[in-house]
Amino acid sequence: MTLSAASVLAPRQRRGLPFRRPHWLTTLAVLVLVIIIITGILAPLLAPFEPTELNSMMRLKPSDTTHWMGTDSYGRDMFSRVLYGARISLLVGFGTAIGCLAVGMPLGLISGWFPWADGVLMRIMDGLMAIPGILLAIAVVALTKAGLVTVIIAIMLPEIPQVVRLVRSRVIAIRSEAYVEAARLLGTSSTRIIWRHLLPSTFGPMIVQGTYIYAAAILTEAALSFLGVGIGTETPTWGNIMAEGRLYFAINPWLVFWPAIVLSLCILSINILGDALRDSLDPKMKSRR
Amino acid sequence: MTTTSSPVLSVRDLRVATIGSRPSEILKGISFDINPGEVVCLVGESGSGKSVTSLVTMDLLPEQELRATGGEVLLNGEDILRATPARTKALRGAEMAMIFQEPMTALNPVLRIGLQMEEVYMAHRDMSARDRRAAVLEAFASVQLPDPPRIYDSYPHQLSGGQRQRVMIAMALALKPRLLIADEPTTALDVTTQKQILTLIRQLQDENGTSVLFITHDMGVVVDIADRVCVMRKGEMMESGPVRELLAAPKTDYTKDLLAAIPSLTPPEPVESEDADIVLSVSGFSKEFRLGSALSRIMGRADHAVRAVDDVSFRLRRGRTLGIVGESGSGKSTVARCVMRLEEPSAGAMLLDGQDISHIQGAELMRARQRLQMVFQDPNRSLNPRIPILESLCEGPLNYGRDRAEIRERAVEIMETVGLDPEGLSRYPHQFSGGQRQRIAIARALLMDPEVIVADEAVSALDVSVQAQVLDLLDRIRRERNLSMLFITHDLRVAAQICDDVMVMQKGKVVEMGPASEVLSNPRHAYTAALIDAAPGRSWDFEAGRPVTEVQPA
User: Fold this and answer.
1) How far apart are CA B547 and CA B554, in angstroms?
2) pTM for the complete prediction?
């Protein structure tokens, strides 16, 4: 018998909506993200100038009606550059998040379900986690030619162990549930048990983890670009815009501030969204009985 | 028993409701009194509001969720509902104390028992350290804990469940409260331990004149401990009265049904079918759990092995039910899990229709599994909450390559067999009650057309009225389909009702085996006799509605 306070409460919670009405902050975060994503996608249409168009007459100008965010040391329009920068940042974030889940989830499921694979896989993951993420990323980029795909892979590597460990812990918690044992007794194969009973229960935490990776990847990409080992300066990203602006920080600090503000807003929004998702997907928030 | 003085606890028209946009009443105006030196049992099935009643009395309602909306709870004439939190805090421990179902969760696992016990005195009494220690040791002795100084220095995990509950009782009674509230204090314990704890509570209550509010779902426990009984159902007080009167002549239909649902300890007349062929034959079966890591093996340390099952042999004939009874740790569930091959047996043979299934793998194991199916204890966990019922039912037959449309038809049929509306096939597990879910789990097993059903405590998580229905269902199905059943239970009453043969296990070994009627009415082994003796409510014949005058003639 369970404590009846809990059993008494269950019916009330069951009647509630699966998702509570979102907090205003969540709504705002989603709005900000949508704007950044849409303007990023539509950058070629929205940008008033070509992001790489040089104009030696207009160097280091402050904001005005033609150049909303001013211009940089080559006279390039900052607004256009930040818009285009969003495309790379969002793409890197999205690519890394999807890539991490695509690699990490199968490894986590295998590690959690098959004891023989667990030892080897987890030691490899421990090894990966022992190396500082940004160093590992720099090393990967240094060994290969810097490009969008290599940068994504470089950022993915240190994030994968987190996904594997999370999925594995979830699988280990569920594998001894009676319904999984019942499935074994019904002759269900391991692959089918993983696919049908284990995989779906990892979706919730994975969506949440995905948003955190997304945010972390955008930050790491900016850091790599800032350090000059990311995507080349011919393609504007928030990171390399800031790196270039740093040299003229004393003359026009807005060269750093503008991309930094947009970057911060973007990360903050994604993290707020992630927290909101975690709260609504958390099993403790929802009645399972 | 004195009934002349004013009651210690008086609950008047108490109402409790949930907090939220759509509040619902959990307690719908209940009233009862507890006189000095009296044991009052609140009895009811899950959701009856009996635990909420105790929480209100202790002023321990979860603030975010429940709220008392009306009535009064008078402790020595003082209304708890209107007292300040500081006042109720002072009253708790000094005037009223509570013991809970699970003593492990009520004790701090990282503090020594003695220190936790001393905290009670520190909070309420001004005593020197030496006096406190002396008081603690004395309190431990009074609840008949062996070797109090050793208990004082122990951590909670070093004690047995019964010892932990004794510590909880010692803590509750430390300040000589006038009211002790016991919320299912013996439900998590084995029957023999339960009996000791009940005797202890009764004894301490007699010595100190404490009043006891005892909450339980078990009518047998009521018989053993109560002076008066209050029967609750869905937040309402159905009836109350002195225990013997109420049991002998229940006024409401609900109480009558509740009493009728209690399985009798006397097994029905045995049906002879000794000539039936043997379906499952287990011989010399053992299971060892090795505790010890690869590292300790490399370091040359010896493995620590626990023998959960030791040399068990039995035969299950077609169409019969073999019960495996025993207390926790007896290895009964391990036997079931090994038969199902959820665990690998360490030694011995298991013949299913002559084929040894103890070590088969792959396709062979898959073929054997179809003929063996299991019903689990907790129906909340044996069905995947994300999958509709139909999908759960189809899973097995689909694995064996049956046609989907055909399975669907059979699923509809089976739902009717287990007494459920086939409409429910498209619903999810949480939309069913516990008893219904257990029926679904049985239906799932039946869809595989098994020859043997292994039921591991299949009715233990259910309320007594639901338990009776599910037992009837299992028995009916067994007869109709000529199935064999391995029925694992800790409850002798349940075993008496459903089993043809009974095997009693203790610490991994079989101590006695034979026809149920013989083993339960004329036990040969001392342990079996002790188990039967400890069965709660043995002194009352629920069927006849009168006390049992003499022990069954041998």
Assistant:
1) 19
2) 0.82
